[in-house]
Amino acid sequence: MDRPLPCLPLLLAILLPLTALAAPATEQRERALNFDTYHAAVLQSAGHPNELHRWHGVWAYDNGRYDEAIVQFRRAARYADKYSQHFLSMMYWYGEGAAPDRVEAYLWADLAAERGDNADLLEIREKIWASLSAEQQLQVAERGEDYATRYGDKAALPRINSHIRHFARSQTGSRVGAQTARLDIGLGRPDIWAGGGGSAVSTQAMKGVQTGEFYGAHRTRPDAYWKDQGLLLRTLTGQVEVGDVDKVEGKTPAPSEAD
């Protein structure tokens, strides 16, 4: 087994750290997320589909539904979500929700590290690259352009930033400076809810929420949002063993395109 590499844990958008995605699913681990925390995170994700799909992915993963987690993380990855791209890299490395695939693991690791501002993600990417055979490195070159076109920042950032700007325009409240109000947040019908069923809830109320925080610059201005996300990403580290890949039996292959 190779030496451990730093890895990012499953992360709550509201700054609550969770268990690291640091071991194959075959190892015994404690649940990282309860329904109340998941529900609160979904509410907090309003206007940010990258976070919404990331949370659905975390919930599915934590309930052992790894194929569903891959679908949700792929959807979040379309919105420049580096957390989800990293999670996909680790899931394909370990064969959780799909057969182990070092080339696929590298492609997602490369996307997760593309901004070049996170030493941990860069180290993981280079570690995976060093493990590839010459043939696998050629496969990376053949498949990489398509992944960059669909999931790279050049395409994904405009996609998510339009949602963030729309969210900013949805802000309503007092013109005399009141910062505390009842917020009714539309949820629609999330794809995954408790137990995997659909939710009939269309809105949820959050009483006593500081609207200045909920609609702060770090949530409503793309430049401030991505700066905040990048800082958060760099503050949390865990450990993951990037060594030999063993096939995990009984997993459902993920779809090639989950959009």
From TrEMBL:
UniProt keyword terms in alphabetical order: Signal
Signal peptide, first to last residue: 1-22
Q: Which domain of life is it from?
A: Bacteria
The record's section on SMART domains has:
SEL1 (SM00671)
Q: State the protein's name.
A: Sel1 repeat family protein
